[in-house]
Amino acid sequence: RSNGSAGAAPAMSFLLFAVTALHVLVIIFLFVATLDKGWWVLPDGRALNLWYDCVQNGTRGWACSAAGDGPWLRAVQGLVLGALLLSSAAFALFVWQLHAGPRGRLFSASGGTQILAGLWVLVGAALYAALGARPGPPPGGRFGHCFVLAWLCVPLALGSGITYIHLRKKE
């Protein structure tokens, strides 16, 4: 072969490392967005998550109640949790394809699964934005850091999924 292909191996290794790091970042962001308290911030600074509203009850500890039973909130919960599970499955599938899968094949399955995860978090975050944190949220409330992380996951997951589809395992 010509010397032109000698430079392709380091570039491919870097691309593989970069897309793997990006995928791990997406999983971490989705994990924090799903479980941390900070989807909606009340005017007094208290933050609410997707699952429970917990407030410190003086010296008696914490008082928690379900975040809500609305069907749209259940849909957001399911979509964001589903995106986390899909992204994790896509990563496991990618690792399997990288180490045990057939050579010369594209990473289409892991890329498609990661794109699906990106679309699920897109729909979940858009639904949350469209319907607000609560029916009639208190005036002055705002979206929190978990909501921002969920939106950051959308382009990152879609970008890593598209990159996976274009990667080909070396023969």
Automatic annotation (TrEMBL):
InterPro entries: PMP-22/EMP/MP20-like, PMP22/EMP/MP20/Claudin, PMP22_EMP_MP20
Keywords: Membrane, Transmembrane, Transmembrane helix
GO cellular component, one term: plasma membrane
Domain of life: Eukaryota
One Pfam family from the record: PMP22_Claudin
Bilayer topology term: Multi-pass membrane protein
Residue stretches spanning the membrane: 12-33, 75-94, 106-128, 148-167
Keyword Hydrolase: no
PROSITE patterns in the record: PMP22_1
Family of the protein in this entry: Belongs to the PMP-22/EMP/MP20 family.
PANTHER family: EPITHELIAL MEMBRANE PROTEIN 3, EPITHELIAL MEMBRANE PROTEIN-RELATED
Name under which the protein is recorded: Peripheral myelin protein 22
Organism: Hypotaenidia okinawae
